[in-house]
Write a structure and sequence with these properties.
Blueprint (H helix, E strand, L loop, with lengths): L2 E10 L3 E7 L5 E8 L3 H4 L1 H22 L29 E10 L5 H17 L2 E10 H10 L4 E6 L3 E6 L5 E5 L11 H17 L7 H9 L4 H8 L6 H6 L1 H9 L3 H25 L6 E6 L1 H5 L1 H14 L3 E4 L5 H16 L1
Parallel strand pairs: 1-4, 4-5, 6-9, 9-10
Antiparallel strand pairs: 1-2, 2-3, 6-7, 7-8
Helix pairs in contact: 2-3, 4-13, 5-9, 5-10, 9-10, 10-12
């Protein structure tokens, strides 16, 4: 007999991949975490492996708890979402979910969709998970739809990368940013970390003033001087994730009064606001009431960036309501799955 649960929700971000099995109310039954599954940053095979690892770990934990798993009345009937009897799940056995929702970073073009949908199919096959319905969205769209229930809203994400999404009252959507670390991601953790490196090297040249960022960067990376910092940037050790981690050093330096760090963070907020204003203009939402959701490590953990962005947003769209709750992207993906379950099953 194949065990069943209502929902599999996956947030596949640029830093980590989180898979969650949940009940029809969105309550978490088990979760599993792995590394980045943004194939644009890690490569297709590595991203597919992390996606599989996250689902497998969540399934392993679900099997250990065997909580909330409902069997079908018979193998010929669909599973009822109200059945009470629980069944055991074998870690290496089949599992069926009513709905599987994937919010995956890097889904920006039709080519991306083909690649990521293939990754999803592989991950489900390798973990022996089947689903009545599979939904694959960009992680930002999934989070926005889940958080707003399809109502008008703007989602600003600034984590490892950055992007802005919006949906207006007519159901039209638009985005700005999200073009990746090579040509975009302004205001993101990676962008902030890169600006810190640039500031240190500019100071070394005499093209910029002294900044406490230099010492913090060298200490964090275990380097002796700016020349070694330069070598690190062009070595195999350099990565998007490691550079994004440097953003916290900028936060530390700003709190200690470093002017260069403050300017970097203010510019990060201004870049995010620029993207948000672009989406507002595309959708004609500036004068309308709607919810603004701020997500990602930069906006959750850096008050200067968050507050400057929120204040700027209110100045251009006075009726906007800033959602001050600290929500994780997975919450939006789970919410979207719950909405689909209630609407269609």
């Amino acid at each position: 007999m194949t065990a069943r649960v209502p929902l599999l929700a996956v947030d596949g971000g640029g830093t980590k991949c989180l898979a969650v099995f949940a009940d029809i109310e969105g309550r978490m039954l088990a979760s599993g975490k792995a590394g980045s599954c943004n194939y644009q940053g890690t490569g297709r095979e590595a991203a597919a492996l992390e996606l599989t690892r996250a689902i497998r770990e969540a399934k392993r934990r679900l099997a250990a708890s065997a909580t909330g798993c409902k069997p079908p009345a018979s193998e010929a009937e669909p599973a009822s979402l109200e059945q009470k009897k629980t069944v055991n799940i074998a870690e290496d056995g089949p599992l069926h979910v009513t709905c599987a929702v994937f919010g995956v970073a890097g889904l920006d073009t039709e080519h991306d969709r083909q690649v990521i949908e293939e990754m999803v199919r592989e991950a489900l096959a390798h973990t022996q998970v089947t689903a009545d319905r599979i939904v694959v969205e960009n992680d930002g769209i999934a989070a926005l739809l889940g958080a707003t229930g399809g109502a008008p809203g703007i989602l600003i994400i600034a984590g490892t990368g950055s992007i802005v999404y919006g949906i207006n009252a007519q159901g039209q959507s638009a985005r700005a940013g999200g073009w990746g670390h090579r040509v975009g991601d302004e205001g993101s953790g990676y962008w902030i970390g890169k600006q810190a490196i640039r500031a240190a090297l500019r100071g070394f040249d005499g093209r910029g003033g002294h900044t406490a960022l230099t010492g913090k960067l060298l200490l964090h990376l275990g380097l002796r001087n700016e020349e070694e910092l330069f070598n690190w940037v062009y070595s195999a050790e350099y990565s998007v994730d490691k550079t994004a981690e440097l953003a916290r050093l900028v936060t530390e330096a700003e709190r200690e009064g470093d002017e260069t760090a403050r300017l970097i963070l203010e510019t990060a907020a201004d870049e995010l606001l620029l993207g948000a204003r672009s989406v507002l203009n595309k959708l004609g939402m500036a004068a309308a009431p709607f919810t603004v959701i701020l997500q990602g490590g930069v906006l959750q953990n850096n008050p200067l960036v968050r507050n400057r962005l929120a204040d700027g947003f209110r100045s251009v769209s006075p009726q906007a309501q800033i959602d001050e709750a600290k929500k994780e992207p997975i919450d939006g993906v789970i919410a979207q799955g719950v909405q689909l379950l209630r609407r269609e099953y």
